[in-house]
Write a structure and sequence with these properties.
The complex is a heterodimer of chains A (125) and B (282).
Chain A lengths: L5 E4 L2 E5 L6 H18 L3 E5 L8 H16 L3 E5 L3 H9 L8 E3 L2 H14 L6
Parallel strand pairs in A: 2-3, 3-4, 4-5
Antiparallel strand pairs in A: 1-2
Helix pairs in contact in A: 1-2
Chain B lengths: L2 H8 L1 H11 L2 H4 L6 H21 L11 H17 L3 H9 L2 H11 L3 H44 L4 E4 L2 E7 L4 H18 L3 E8 L5 H17 L2 E5 L3 H10 L7 E2 L3 H11 L7 H4 L1
Parallel strand pairs in B: 2-3, 3-4, 4-5
Antiparallel strand pairs in B: 1-2
Helix pairs in contact in B: 1-4, 1-7, 2-4, 2-7, 4-5, 5-8, 6-8, 7-8, 9-10
Classes of the chains: A alpha/beta (125), B alpha/beta (282).
Chain lengths: 125, 282
């Protein structure tokens, strides 16, 4: 079964979704990501969805859930590169992804993660 | 050959001059159109009509033999509408053609029955042609209205780049669902294009803000946030501030500023800029 690769970059995990998300894939990603966070002790997760062109309510909720789960595991999550159509769809579906940080592209997302790590005085060293 | 066709063909030139004389000065509108142009239109019409009635039935003006007449009337109607003729004047221009033809037919006709039949046919034909000009007039107006509506929809939502990473969206006019959709799409597209982090939505030009408009604004702000850009709503007038509070609309998740200048300052500060007056430095 195909899986979405999770790359490690220093303290951060990088998830790039480059295929159309279907429900099983999203569930697998949820499992993989949470176990990778616990294995690596990652401090931040960056989910790049710039290639994602369609979302439904399920995928929207999965994104929101994945973000909340990583936050519970003390890893800041940033969703980057959302397409305009996807953003409009999510808003119309009433999924505003509260609490999820967003950025325009991977670079900005990385900056955001680094900054929030520096500002966090309680962070592990 | 029918009497109509015969008469029109035989007296083509005379009919044209009679017709021009016939046109009352009120419908002629020499202030809007030169005599030479009128003559030109009239003679072209008579010529086209002559070949049309020779070519077949006079009953149906949508037939192939009337193609050239219809094209000509299209052109006449459109050009007259542009010059400022009313549709009535244009229709009367065509209707006034009846009289000269009927008086010629009277002279040519062999018996009263034929005359009656033929003038009835002529009557019907000219009426249809006259009404056709009105139809064309309406159609051209309709096209104009549709085009202007589209223009307005596009023009009314300009997304302006104020600074590197700062966009502004000055909204003018009432916000309804269709317009919000256009606004939202163009803003989001521009955010991707220009890689902007802050967008200022200025609602100074929005006359009223009700719950629906507020809902639309919040949707736009949320969509921009999902893409990673912050929105600031500016230009909130005192009355609008009052209505928003009275309606119980929750704008607490959105940064709001009373003027666009304040919003721009905040946007620049977020981008890491500081501004110092030259005299203060020295």
């Amino acid at each position: 079964m195909e899986r979405i690769p999770i790359l490690r970059m220093g303290d951060f995990l990088l998830v790039t979704i480059q295929v159309d998300m279907h429900d099983r894939l999203a569930l697998a990603l949820q499992d993989d990501l949470t176990s990778r966070i616990s294995d690596t002790g990652a401090r931040g997760v960056l989910i790049d969805i710039s290639s994602l062109e369609t979302v439904d309510s399920f995928i929207g909720r999965m994104l929101s859930n994945i973000a909340s789960m990583s936050r519970v595991m003390d890893a800041e999550t940033v969703v980057v590169g959302m397409q305009p159509e996807v953003a409009i769809t999510l808003v119309e579906l009433g999924l505003a992804l509260p609490g999820v940080r967003t950025a325009l592209n991977v670079e900005r997302g990385m900056d955001l993660l680094r900054n929030s790590r520096q500002n966090n005085a309680w962070g592990r060293r | 050959m029918t009497l109509i066709a015969e008469v029109i063909r035989k007296h083509e030139a005379d009919l044209t001059s009679d017709w021009i004389q016939e046109m009352a000065s009120s419908t002629r509108r020499s202030d809007l159109m030169k005599d030479s142009e009128l003559k030109n239109q009239a003679s072209q019409f008579v010529k086209a009509l002559s070949s049309a009635v020779e070519g077949g039935s006079t009953e149906d003006i949508s037939g192939r033999n009337f193609d050239s007449v219809r094209d000509l009337l299209d052109e006449i109607s459109r050009s007259r509408a542009n010059k400022g003729f009313t549709p009535t004047e244009t229709a009367i221009f065509v209707f006034s053609f009846k009289k000269p033809v009927i008086s010629r037919m009277q002279k040519e006709a062999k018996d009263p029955q034929t005359l009656l039949n033929e003038s009835w046919k002529l009557n019907e034909l000219v009426d249809k042609l006259g009404l056709y000009t009105t139809e064309v007039f309406l159609k051209s107006r309709e096209e104009l209205i549709v085009r202007q509506q589209q223009d307005m929809l596009e023009l009314s939502t300009p997304v302006v780049r104020l600074w590197e990473g700062v966009l502004a969206l000055p909204l003018i006019g009432t916000l309804d669902s269709a317009r919000t959709q256009v606004v939202m799409e163009s803003l989001l597209r521009k955010i991707v294009e220009t890689n902007s982090q802050v967008a200022i939505i200025d609602i100074t030009g929005v006359p009223t803000v009700d719950t629906l408009v507020a809902q639309h604004l919040i949707k736009t702000v949320t969509a921009a946030r999902l893409m990673g850009a912050d929105c600031i709503i500016s230009g909130i007038r005192p009355q609008i501030a009052q209505t928003i509070v009275h309606l119980g609309v929750n704008l607490s998740d959105v940064t709001t500023k009373s003027s666009m200048a304040d919003a721009f300052m905040i946007a620049l500060q977020r981008g890491g800029y500081t501004f110092v007056k030259k005299t203060d430095v020295a």
